[in-house]
Known about the structure:
There is one protein chain. By secondary structure, the protein is of the alpha+beta class. It has a single domain, classed as 3-Layer(aba) Sandwich (L-fuculose-1-phosphate Aldolase), CATH 3.40.225.10. It contains 7 helices and 7 strands; from the N terminus they run H-E-E-E-H-E-H-H-E-H-E-E-H-H. It has a 7-stranded mixed sheet with strand order 3-2-1-4-7-6-5, sandwiched between helices. A hairpin with a 3-residue loop joins strand 6 and strand 7 (152-157). The longest helix is centred in the C-terminal third of the chain and has 24 residues, at 160-183. The protein is globular. It starts with a helix and ends with a helix. The model has no long low-confidence stretch (mean pLDDT 93).
Amino acid sequence: MNKKDIIEIGESLYNKGLTVGTSGNISIRTEEGIYITASGTVLGSLKEDDIVLIDFEGQEFENKKASSEKMLHVEIYKQRNDVKAIIHTHPEYLTSFAVCHKTLNAPIMSENIIYFEDIPVAEYAMPSSKQLVENTVKYLKNRDVVMMANHGVIAVGKDLTDAYLKLETAEYYAKVILNTQIIGNPQELSEKDVQDLINLKNQKNKN
């Protein structure tokens, strides 16, 4: 992965309506350190100069200022050796549930069971604060997508495509849940159906 991959994912996020304005940030883990979008950049129209190299303590190697959420990315990489890419954005539906402090855990689709089981909401803290890092990272120890109360959502993956697909799927899941609440009487999967899907997920992870 390189800067061009970050630029492409930023464009995809914008085209899918998963980011707005200058909100959000993207990073990748590399041998040189962490490449992360600069503060105040527009993810939909990134240039290579908008991506900053930092080390695993958050120290910048360039004059350009890294995203204000850089320490959240740093801490996730420290806690999760399997994570190579991180995307943080404020998509409409996930952010709406985050504002309402509502965990997404309704067993209504096989995809949400296999991908997530649930998507929790990390407790609110000031953006860019140490408390925000602590509140969020504890949920990411055994999950790949977490909403941040009154803020947005963060997704992690083995590469940028993996993180992007998880974010896109999570936003679709949030949209479907909202639609079922409007329509009424959603039919949830049975406990056996859920367990069968979890077993399938575990089997795939072993292979």
